[in-house]
Amino acid sequence: MATFGIPNGPWADRYHAAQSTMTTHFQHLYRFRPRARPTRAIFLTITAFFLVVVLLWRPSSQPTENYWLKYPSYRSSQDRPEALPIVHKGKPTFTRNDTLPGNLQKNNPSFHLIIPAKRKSSALCRMLTSAMILNYPPPTLINYGKKLSEGAKEYDHMKDRIASIYNFLDKTQHVHDNDLALILDGTDFFFQLPPDVLIQRFQNILKENNAKLAKKYGLVIVEKPSEQGAPETVQKYTQRVLFSASKECCPGLSRDAGCVAVPESSLPPDIYGWKTDSPSYRTLARPRWIKPGAVIGQVADLKAIYAEILRFIEQNRIPRGDSIALTYLFGRQEYVRELERRRASNPFMEWMYTMIGISEASNLTGLSPRLEAGRRYEHGIGVDYESRLFFNTWKSTRDVEWLRYRNITKTSFAQMLHNVPRERRLLLPDDLAPERVSNPFTQPIFGKNDPPLNPPINETLDALPHPGFYSWRKFPLLTNVHSASVPALICLDGNPSLRSTWWSMMWYHRWARALLRKYVRSPTGFEAAQSALLGGQEWWDLRGGRGGIWTEKGEWFDYSEVCVGYEKEVFHDGLGKWRQENGESDEPVYNQFGQLVKGKEGFSPS
Ligand SMILES: *[C@@H]1O[C@H](CO)[C@@H](O)[C@H](O)[C@H]1NC(C)=O
Ligand SMILES: *[C@@H]1O[C@H](CO)[C@@H](O)[C@H](O)[C@H]1NC(C)=O
Ligand SMILES: *[C@@H]1O[C@H](CO)[C@@H](O)[C@H](O)[C@H]1NC(C)=O
Ligand SMILES: *[C@@H]1O[C@H](CO)[C@@H](O)[C@H](O)[C@H]1NC(C)=O
Predict the structure, then answer these.
(1) Which domain of life is it from (predicted)?
(2) Between 435 and 260, whose confidence is greater?
(3) 365 lines ligand 2 (CB under 6 A)
């Protein structure tokens, strides 16, 4: 494999770019049937002229450097995050009375939720509560309880955070390269939709975008050394990880490739009306730039990206170096892709597309990023322009409405109120249809022989609406009216004033305590074990564990250890402390660093 990186390697000259575009264009031309002879004559002359030009121009474009090889970009076509069998479809094949075979291994990739959080806070507890209610895997908190030495600067905290995330991905035994990970940088997030919706959307976006990238950049046939089998046709560039999108580029980099050469947003150019993208109306810009904060992808890809970020911030000791590094990374990736696209494209076609105004070229004017031959700039980075996964509130708080999709009067006017051109009726996304996603109010069924429920059912505390009467169509869902999407995750990027109001508007807020109790109570024992081994939906992470969080060191903290004391901010229901609602409790009480303060030791992770 190492030879792939060598620009002048033994098989470099055997590389062929697929040039199917040409033929298709001529097929299109031939379909026009001129009516009169003079027209046909003119048409044929022009075609002949174009042909000559094309034939004369092509050879001159051949000897230039192959950027796909110069900056190693190879990815095997077998290794695609969008094809990961991560969402478990179908029913488990065991019945309750079967015994589990001792050698059963969990063979599908896991899904990890990674959150750097040093200490408890109401923001962290809201985030954890929303993740648990929606059945996300138990999160892993990075650096929880860690204190840096006195006098640590902003830079030190940032570097420590990035290094710890990288080390977790790199060194943890149960985190495998082909697992999926969602890394959220901080605690200002609310989950809105369940994890299977998030993961399937991620995979769908990759499929859509990769089809577009295959068309734009073409394919390449990689001939392998004979012992490795037949030649492989791979797409030159693919998308593999998704970051959230921002309306603003990282400040201070306006002359960098990361701000200039990155693709345009996939939203229509007038989606915010005629002032869209005008420099004097920042809130009316289409999200286009990369925004650190939320990212989803395979562990191996994220590890490579975090390694680059870490390398950059170690060389440049500047605050906010992580944002800058990420902007650089994305910019250089797109810069190299554009160089390669220009090299492989036909200059005549380029010229014609520019004339018609459908050129795909990105603007490289005045850019000259420093690139080193033999280094990988291709990281498969993409951005979620339409906020189907991540909605970032930065300069965007006015783009949203809280819609109940059953109320058609409201949904049909929403786009008009926001001046969206070419309105279309906002409909509940397909992946939230009742047959695709379970009703969050359905209570699990418990048998007589099950162990006693913990916590026991209490009519007051566990009151939930009947699932038949309440469903996704009736919940108020935060909707990005412009892109017509219901994001799975909301990033309240440095907007603390919204935290409480938006939290109280989340669909689960009214029933947060009952839903959390339902989550914590979910079956343990046989079903849990089976489900964990099979990679069932509720047990994404092999370690299992319920109603708590892990740290990167493998310690387990119960939800109450982290979040007791924040009930007012989280539940706002006046029912008192979590798990101590009736006044007494035998729950152990821990201090901030996990030491037992009162009560007896409960579940321990080892
Ligand atoms: C499990 O075993 C019990 C008692 O042996 C039996 O009544 C029940 O039908 C069995 N359930 C299934 C699903 O096989
Ligand atoms: C490309 O960028 C340069 C410098 O930023 C600018 O002057 C030029 O107008 C841009 N060209 C196009 C076609 O956008
Ligand atoms: C639907 O929305 C409209 C406009 O906000 C509101 O006046 C009406 O009461 C809503 N209807 C229902 C059934 O919630
Ligand atoms: C249920 O919870 C409420 C509120 O904490 C409490 O007043 C009531 O006594 C509980 N009921 C039972 C049967 O435990």
Answers:
(1) Eukaryota
(2) 260
(3) yes
